[in-house]
Design a protein that fits this description.
Layout (H helix, E strand, L loop, with lengths): L21 H13 L1 H9 L25 E2 L4 E4 L26 H8 L9 E9 L2 E8 H21 L5 H6 L13 E9 L6 E8 L10 E4 L2 E3 L7 H6 L3 H13 L16 H12 L2 E10 L6 E10 H7 L6 E2 L2 E10 L2 H10 L4 H12 L1 H5 L1
């Protein structure tokens, strides 16, 4: 982690005018999707006094980064029925310059003018506080995060194109790691390491996220699986039953590694689901270990990620994931035969490839803690 002073400053200039046409808004949106990696690196420089995860540009707080890996099942989740209302929602006057004429929110703009294949305002678990080993949550919805994060990213892309420092909405958000100011809907970014039982060497696969299919993180590499922490269905029963990090992780393995649909049904029973039973049995026998390494926020979009890694014995991996899908609903798989988990590969994807900030952070932290992850 670098830089530990909590001071915060974003340059401010007079406000820009809203878009004059839908086509001009689409042009900036296209530029944003095509240059997310470069824009995230540039946005990182707006926060010189916020801590970063290692050498990456993922923003964090000192209390968010764990000194040692913490097993996923040891994290306690707390629910808040009366949460604080976010200070910033994306409906403020400062957001209007990033919106096309006649459309009041960024999610509605995407729905009308640039709708990706996967685009639903589903229930999510909104993160309120991080106090390891406890995380506090309440109810949120997916578009809550888009209306703030993608608005700020769009505004930054427009300012970059115009070569100005006009970012009134980003200034309004303030410190992106302040969970009281905005809706933070975390994803679990899980690096999966297949460990050879005999040699001890490990490999991993990556996900190339397709900007035509996803609302966030398109055109970037990412670890897999990754999924927003949310219930499988919209019902109160699912919201209660699925308030569990491990259940979310297993569903993402099914969807990203095996190409399973996201449709589960409210009567879905994890206890009788073969994949859930097999992965849970492997975890309980010590042949699979899922650990959390910290938490971070993307400097461009404010996407918030729980940084985690799963180490799976090769015999278990090869049985359960014998046929990793080449593509899924969010993109395609890179390195299905295994990318070596070594210093050269980690350095390549952390520093040289267009990697999502959270993915780069997970890879770097996993390499740092590689001995602890298997001991």
């Amino acid at each position: 982690m670098r830089n530990s002073t909590p001071a915060f400053e974003v340059p401010m200039s007079p406000s820009v005018q809203p878009y004059g046409s839908h086509s001009s808004w689409r042009g900036v949106r296209r530029y944003l999707n095509e240059h997310r990696h470069q824009l995230a690196q540039a946005a990182d420089r707006l926060y010189p006094h916020l801590p970063k995860v290692g050498s990456t540009h993922l923003l964090t707080r000192e209390a968010w980064t764990l000194a040692h890996p913490m097993e996923l099942h040891r994290i306690a989740l707390r629910w808040a029925d009366r949460p604080p209302v976010p200070v910033v929602t994306g409906r403020e006057a400062e957001a209007k310059a990033a919106l096309p004429p006649g459309i009041p929110t960024y999610a509605q703009a995407m729905e009308a003018l640039d709708r990706p294949r996967l685009f639903e305002n589903r229930k999510c678990y909104r993160l309120l506080d991080v106090a390891w080993p406890e995380l506090s949550f309440t109810r949120g919805h997916y578009f809550d995060g888009l209306d703030v994060g993608e608005t700020a990213a769009h505004e930054f892309a427009a300012a970059t194109l115009l070569e100005v420092t006009v970012r009134p909405f980003r200034r309004l958000v303030g410190d992106p790691t302040d969970l009281r100011r905005r809706p933070a809907l975390p994803a679990i970014s899980m690096l999966t390491l297949r460990r050879d039982d005999h040699t001890g060497t490990m490999t991993f696969v990556l996900h190339w996220r397709d900007s035509a299919r996803v609302a966030h993180g398109g055109g970037l590499y990412q670890v897999m699986p990754v999924g927003v922490f949310q219930p499988a269905e919209e019902t109160p029963h699912a919201e209660t039953c699925d308030f569990d990090l491990w259940k979310c992780v297993v569903r993402e393995y099914a969807e990203e590694f095996l190409g399973r649909s996201e449709a589960y049904g409210d009567a879905f029973d994890y206890g009788t689901w073969p994949l859930y039973r097999e992965l849970t049995a492997a975890r309980e026998s010590g042949r699979l270990r899922s650990s959390v390494l910290g938490m971070g926020v993307d400097p461009l979009t404010f996407a918030t990620d729980i940084l985690a890694v799963t180490v799976i014995d090769a015999s278990v991996f090869d049985t359960i994931f014998s046929e990793v899908t080449a593509s899924n609903e969010e993109g395609h798989v890179v390195g299905a035969t295994g990318i070596p988990f070594d210093e050269a590969s980690v350095s390549r994807y952390v520093h040289d490839e267009p990697m999502q900030a959270a993915g780069a952070a997970v890879l770097e932290l996993a390499w740092k803690h590689r001995q602890a992850l298997v001991s």
